[in-house]
Design brief:
With 137 residues, the protein is an alpha+beta fold. The protein has helices spanning 3-10, 49-56, 87-99, 104-114; strands at 15-20, 26-31, 33-36, 39-45, 59-65, 73-83, 119-124, 128-132. The protein is globular. It starts with a helix and ends in a 5-residue tail after the last strand. The mean pLDDT is 93.
């Protein structure tokens, strides 16, 4: 993976997670994520439509754009795996929350409000990556 793309994915951006709905239409959800060592992790509550969709069909697309005034984007395609509730899931959930807060104390206060909800971690090891605005196509 290109270094610029990797650095872009490691910034604190929002992503759009696309799963396949039961009726064939895409289900789009804005999500927080972390990108580490070529793997993208998203935290999700087990009761959500996106998780039900992924249990039925693990095909997923995740798109991250550059935000206002930045036309770059990266789209990642592949099959998601779910990390079920447990110590690894809780650790990844904390790391995702911490990624989006400037200081640990604020992150910890937010984490306290979500730590007991039943969740999974959506894991994507991209099979295909498409990007724009990084000097390649």
């Amino acid at each position: 993976m290109d270094v610029q793309v990797s650095e872009f994915l490691q910034a604190d951006r929002h992503a759009i997670l696309a799963t396949n709905g039961r009726n064939g239409a895409p289900q789009l959800t804005p999500v927080w994520y972390i990108f580490e060592e070529g793997v993208l992790y998203v935290s999700a509550q087990t009761s959500t439509v996106k998780v039900r969709n992924l249990r039925r069909d693990p095909t997923v697309t995740i798109c991250i754009d550059g935000g206002r005034g930045d036309a770059r984007y990266v789209a990642l395609y592949g099959k998601a795996e779910l990390i079920e509730p447990g110590e690894r899931q809780r650790d990844l959930r904390w790391r995702i929350v911490r990624h989006y807060y400037a200081d640990e104390a604020t992150a910890a206060r937010y984490y306290e409000t979500v730590k007991d909800t039943v969740g999974v971690i959506v894991t994507l090891r991209p099979e295909r990556i498409v990007s724009m605005g990084f000097g390649q196509s």
